[in-house]
Amino acid sequence: MKVFTILPTDLNRRCWNYVSKEEVKCGNCNWRTTRLFVIAESKREAIRLVGEGQAGLCGECFAEMLADEGYELKIPEKR
Ligand SMILES: [Zn+2]
Description:
The strands form 2 sheets. A two-stranded antiparallel ribbon has the order 1-4. A two-stranded antiparallel sheet has the order 2-3. The protein is an alpha+beta fold. The protein has 2 helices and 4 strands. The chain is globular, with a radius of gyration of 13 Å. It has one domain. Bound molecules: zinc ion. Zinc ion binds next to helix 2.
């Protein structure tokens, strides 16, 4: 699983998280931000999860989730 960035332009306008071409809404705190973060297997899956209301957090809520739920990170090999 990887972390994907979802921008307003990635979303359907009817998606709950979509606010405008520049803004999206966090699924946890409702704050408006420029991007959401999603854990998924692919960008396509990440977009689907946001569309289904199952994912999509602002940076603050995403970091809090990682800390609170005990996620472990894998450092990528040098590119
Ligand atoms: Zn949030």
